[in-house]
Design brief:
The chain is of the alpha/beta class. Helices cover 38% and strands 15% of the residues. The structure holds adenosine monophosphate and manganese (II) ion (3 copies).
Length: 304
């Protein structure tokens, strides 16, 4: 595999895989068509669209690729919210069949959890003298999955905070006025639905759950015992020590390694394809599970 510089002059392996991203189908700001166009600009060859608890963006993304003959392979994906030991853990499914009945059923349940939680969050905000949140987030989500990201945007628009991270801190984090725990599925249920739709399960951003090393190991072990295949080792906004630590977990627990930007919107610090490479000695998830690779003959950006 050759080295190539992407749009930000980062050295990356080609073909460049970015296996975690969001569109307007959940809390991303770009349309699915806008997202795939940007992925090509950023020299990404294989993009997984992994919206929160929905696969609604996949067909429009595939249509945009076909219509514009973009040199990009779209891997259908999803990011499922789960509840484990009172922590919200995200499981990414890669290479799923979005039409598989088991996936459709799980996502239907998850969307009901999202709707119900949104109503509870809105009524808590209303009691705190912030009316109109449900209408506000439903307008922002425009039929897509309602996330706390939409509540954050609504609250910033209402002048309740100056930016998104402030609004999470003051309103949406655990223990704050607008925090309501959701009744997400279990890790086991998420992995089963992913497997029943022919996909591979990835433990998303393990460094972001604020777990001690002991609990993180417990989580990784539980995930593997339930049949999970990979952990996300590389993200673009991450300390080098975290990447090597996660690579060590991948080796220790014999899990494949994934990489993804978790791109939501154009901004200064997170970009599609940026800084995505895996440390030596781990198996890339697409190497261990070659069905995740583009079929020979698929038009993608190659080493050049
Ligand atoms: P939900 O799945 O509805 O609980 O929303 C979670 C989403 O909110 C995550 O995927 C992030 O996009 C966003 N989010 C969570 N915490 C923060 C934070 N501290 N700052 C900015 N965005 C956040
Ligand atoms: Mn999100
Ligand atoms: Mn996540
Ligand atoms: Mn994500």
């Amino acid at each position: 595999m050759g080295q190539q510089s992407n749009a930000m002059n980062q050295l990356t392996d080609y073909p460049l895989y970015d296996l975690h991203s969001h569109s307007q189908a959940s809390d991303g700001l770009l349309t699915p068509a806008g997202l795939v166009a940007r992925a090509v600009q950023m020299r990404v060859s294989v993009l997984a669209l992994t919206d929160h608890d929905t696969v609604a963006g996949i067909a429009p993304a595939q249509q945009a690729i076909a219509q514009q003959q973009l040199p990009l392979y779209l891997l259908p994906g999803v990011e499922i919210s789960t509840l484990w030991e009172n922590h919200e853990i995200h499981i990414v499914g890669l290479g799923i069949d979005p039409q598989a009945p088991a996936m459709k059923q799980l996502l239907l349940n998850q969307s009901m959890c999202r709707q119900y939680r949104a109503e509870l969050i809105a009524s808590r905000l209303e009691k705190a003298q912030i009316p109109g949140a449900l209408e506000g987030v439903m307008a922002l989500a425009a039929g897509g999955a309602i996330t706390r990201g939409h509540f954050a945007r609504f609250l910033v628009a209402q002048g309740k905070a100056s930016n998104i991270s402030q609004v999470f801190k003051n309103y949406l984090a655990r223990g704050k006025t607008g925090y309501v725990p959701a009744q997400w599925c279990t890790i086991k249920q998420a992995i089963e639905a992913i497997h029943h739709s022919a996909g591979r399960a990835v433990l998303a951003h393990p460094g972001r759950y604020h777990l001690s090393a002991k609990w993180l190991k417990r989580l990784v072990l539980h995930f593997r015992e339930q049949g999970g295949e990979a952990i996300e080792v590389a993200q673009c906004q991450q300390a080098p020590a975290e990447r090597s630590q996660l690579a060590q977990y991948a080796r220790d627990y014999d899990l494949a390694a994934s990489q993804g930007s978790d791109f939501h919107q154009p901004c200064a610090w997170i970009e599609l394809g940026r800084k995505l490479w895996l440390p030596a000695g781990v198996d890339a998830v697409w190497t261990r599970y070659p069905e995740l690779q583009p079929q020979p003959g698929t038009a993608i950006l190659e080493d050049q």
